Amino acid sequence: MASEELAIKLQRRLQAQQSDGVEPVTGNESAEKPPTENASSELSAMLLRRQGINEGSTRPRQAKIFNPYTEFKEFSRKQIKDMEKMFKQYDSGKDGFIDLMELKMMMEKLGAPQTHLGLKQMIKEVDEDFDGRLSYREFLLIFRKAAAGELEEESGLMALARLSEIDVSTEGVLGARDFFEAKVQALAIGSRFEEEIKAEKEERRRLELEKKQRRAAFKELQSAFTP
Prior knowledge:
- By secondary structure, the protein is mainly α.
- The protein is 63% helix and 2% strand.
- It has helices spanning 2-19, 35-55, 68-71, 77-90, 100-109, 116-126, 136-147, 156-163, 179-224, and strands spanning 97-98, 134-135.
- One of its GO terms (molecular function) is calcium ion binding.
């Protein structure tokens, strides 16, 4: 198994480091380990954990499930769906991220081309995990910042939000200066959210009823031709 081979190589490397002059820590010496040994120990732990996961003896950590409808409550379901549609449109690699080149194509199609440094700065402003690309959640952060008035008027992100044709005029939930105004708008957004869910349920109920009626009519017609 590849992980076992890596673990063996790592153990040999640790032994080589010790034989090259890394003295064992005694009670009279500093309890801190050399940086290289600390890094090697961390890598060894990672490899052993990976090996345990592969063998089924260790359970992988559960990733936190991202729900845009609960985390970005300031936007309606329609707005979030529009943002998701736009994100998928420009995620040409279909890997769940918009990288630098995909962002370059997006800004060019929106009519606001950016320099290489400008594109990197755009990503940097919302890149919470520092991986140099935009996840769907980080993409939504652009519109949150735009709605809250937290973007520079001449910035690339502001141009993206303005030219996207996605209405984020709900500013006030995060950007309102008055507490009571923000509270009223938050309640209004929550009410609209509930209304949209109710409308979707009503539509599903209507379609189901039509389906049952068509099925009943078909059976009635079928019985008329059955001797």
